Amino acid sequence: MKNNTNKLSLKEKISYGLGDVGNGLMFDMGQIYLLKFYTDILGISSYVAGLVFLLTKIFDAFADASVGAFVDSRTNISKRGKFRPFILFGSIPLAILTLLSFLAPNISDTGKIVYAFATYAAFGLGYSIVNIPYGSLAAAMTQDPIDRASLGSFRAIGSQTSLLISGVAVIPIVMLFSNQKVGYAVAISLMAIIGVVFHYLCYRNTTENVVRAPRKEKIPLAKLFKLLFSNRPLIVLCLVSLFMIAAMFLRMAVQLYYLEYNLGNATLMSLLTFLSIGISIIGSAFIPTFVRRFGKKKTFIIGLFIGIVADLANFLLPTELATFLIIFTIGSFGLSIANGLPWVLVADAIDYHEWKTGERTEGVVYSSYSFFRKLAQALAGFIPGVALGVIGYVPNAQQTAETLIGIKGLMFLVPLSLNLIAALLMIFFYNLTEDLYRKIVDELKKKHTGTNPKTV
């Protein structure tokens, strides 16, 4: 194993975070805008749009697992590293696939449905090829707990920054054009190009420091995934993320409807994004400080409960702009902390996996975690698409009082319930304490003492 006693530089941490800005400027387009693009621009029903999200995300979840296994099974690792080349060479194809998802060809209704399925499934595969190695990279950069927390913090800041850029910029760019088909194509193209630049900076300025020699023989795929069942922290984290990520992306899919119909102004999207993401960036920056003070598990739970209380207040109180913005911003602060920590915890789970099984398989562990995130995203895309039909949503029309209540419930009550389940799972079942993690790192270091300083 390569010697990893030095602390990461600020440049490396920032560059790693920029990688998730690149991810988000492509991925967030689908999570925030694609449902409304499908229903209002492409012209497919909300039921079909929900089905597109469900099936393509399930496909994408299995793509994650396959990509993770492929990354870990490679024996011809170049000087560029095990993970970084995927970020470099996968970024431009991903940008192209992002744009294709937001084109609205003049074809039959059946053709539009097929086009939506094909382009979003292809995007999901392209995103897996970039994102699984990117997520695995953190565990290969350092084993230092505080540096790990810093990487999680910078990744969370990167994620929130991409949300800020896309949330503030996309709709105003679209509205510059009388033809919204053209507006979306221009806006998405700009976001994707910027994303490619940030991916390159991530590749250029990061280093894989925790390195082992490539295997001479491939481990059977079935064995790789069977070993995961002995990794309790990973299993709990996957289940927690299933509920928490479903809550986050469900809200992202619904909030444009809430702003347009409940608050009466879709252009509030820019203001909402600026306030909530701005405070989320501040919250994410404080993750290392909170981790030093409370530990990772307690910090995670505290952040979730801040968001839960805020959602409950916004659901129970009358719909009023100023009150909504204040409470939503407070909730965003708490949830930004909770949403930033899984990237730290999954890196810890990789070390736990090596300690427990003797196999260091960053790609498989991270892709297994990502598998559950994609299932959550599938639910988050499917539920609002179907629920909008159930509550009587009619595109581009005045909504009934019952429909407005339904939109409000999707915006607050459903995410609240999902986050509460996540918090309870974390409280009662997550067992990787700070003391146990320190023990794991010490034992892994002792295990590799006396070996070749470059590889094991």
Main sheet record: none
Instruction: Return the CATH architecture.
Output: Up-down Bundle
Q: What is the rounded distance between the termini?
A: 5 Å
Q: Whole-number radius of gyration?
A: 21 Å
Characterize the overall form.
Answer: globular
CATH superfamily grouping: MFS general substrate transporter like domains
Mean of residue pLDDT?
87
Helix content: over 70%
H and E string: HHHHHHHHHHHHHHHH
Q: DSSP helix count?
A: 16
CATH C-level category? Mainly Alpha
Organism: Lederbergia lenta (Bacillus lentus)
Transmembrane segments: 37-56, 86-107, 113-134, 154-177, 183-203, 234-254, 266-287, 299-317, 323-346, 375-394, 406-430
Subcellular location: Cell membrane
GO molecular function, one term: symporter activity
Structure description:
The chain has helices spanning 10-42, 46-73, 84-101, 109-141, 145-175, 180-205, 221-226, 232-262, 268-285, 287-294, 296-316, 321-340, 342-357, 362-390, 401-429, 434-448. It has one domain (10-211, 221-446): MFS general substrate transporter like domains (Growth Hormone, Chain: A, Up-down Bundle), CATH 1.20.1250. The protein starts with 9 loop residues before the first helix and ends in an 8-residue tail after the last helix. It is mainly α and 456 residues long.
Quick gist of this model?
This is Sugar (Glycoside-Pentoside-Hexuronide) transporter. The protein has 16 helices and no strands.
